[in-house]
Write a structure and sequence with these properties.
178 residues
Length: 178
Amino acid sequence: MAKKTQKKKQETKKLGFKRNLFLVFIIILAVVFHPTTLLLSVGMLPTFVVLLVDRTKGKTKTFTVGAMNLAGCVPFVLEVWIRGHTVETAMDYIMQPRTIVVMYFAAAIGYLIEWAMIGIVMAVMKEKGKMRLKEIDKISEDLIRRWGKSVTGKIPLDPYGFPLETKEDKEEDKEEDA
């Protein structure tokens, strides 16, 4: 137990340095590409919100919404780059309602994709479960036919776990004796 805790602390220390180095790199990029950073900060707000709210394992909703949101932001980032990569150009695009609508609508499509995929996967898994249950029932019936009702686990037992004789067993014994 103590070894696991120590190993986790060492991994956290290594990850902490890498994370800090990555953070410094991102800050430098944000300063160098200030107009792009400004545009993406406004455009990617739905993704930042999902990142805070998403509690699913693997953050699937964050990836789906983020990918679509980024796809909605890219055309405007390219326009800012083409038109001189200035803060004024970025602000012009941010102030246009069409820009915000396109960026946020793309994020909404990401939500829609994630919602639809959950429904589809759930339906497929439910059907696979039903098919498996039918298969198990078929195998159970085959086992009962081959080995008798004693394999079902539904026979009465005494307090020590031994099967009790039922009326059917007594009748079968009488038939065998005759």
